[in-house]
């Protein structure tokens, strides 16, 4: 089991771990036996890794207190995953999960201060990142640390500018690397960072600050409204987002991890979900920039838990009583199949460089003319995206596997 996997020829397959008992609230009464049953489900699908979510305020309830018991529960979860041959990526700042924000009291109410700009909060976060990173790095099956799950969703409740958000992420990534130098250190953002012109978290930071780029593909962002649950825009969205990320990086060999992708209802009805899995996977798995695919999520959410958005309850590959769902069967079949990465692809010329022109993000968002043209051409086979500034760079095109560059109609 490799702690710092970098082999570009090997695709990774995993799942974001949502416990079958009690969702993430299960950290408050952790049971290794319950986790063991869940990991058995996951391993039987052929997965090689899980992404796990310790909840920040339950480990650091006070800026000066980091609970050792909380860290020990996390280490026991990691050891339990190892029993089933599963590598582990640890998300640090939860932060935002399934429509809820989990923040400690020392940043709220009378203590209200921005997570991203307040110096005392940043110092407390750095201490938390350092201690958790140092502890989990001792486990050989841990391979990555992500600052948090879609930390950009914590804005605008925590006001921040684009410059400040980049400094915040760079500072915490430096703390993670210092504490755990053998692990991948990653910065994770929801796709508003790629599509919304005024968003203060930038594509530039996504493709430059972490050790690889992560993207989260959710078709409830409006793309499913374009052509339905199995339309070409919907099933190609994950591949499109991976391509935008690859095209925005200065390094043509920088990998992109599809860290979240799922089949949310009602955008993808249960009857269409297996076909959605199949068609989405067939497109994105051919992408030579793809590092791996991590499905959201492992297990459904119990209906007894109140106030979640309706789509959150049935996103799992398994029911809460461990029954394998049709989406799980389809994903397991995909994992077993041999595949080839696309080579000598055509590319669509993009006039927008997201790394240097974030104010133009709407021009490549789902439903834009550029997106529509990419979807139309993608129907004929794998299709890259190349920024116009690099269209004449032969070495760059060769490194991206681009044979010809097409101009939008």
UniProtKB/TrEMBL annotation:
InterPro entries: GH
Keyword Hydrolase: yes
Gene3D superfamilies in the record: Glycosidases
One Gene Ontology MF term: hydrolase activity
Keywords, comma-separated and alphabetical: Hydrolase
UniProt keyword Hydrolase present: yes
Name assigned to this protein: Glycosyl hydrolase
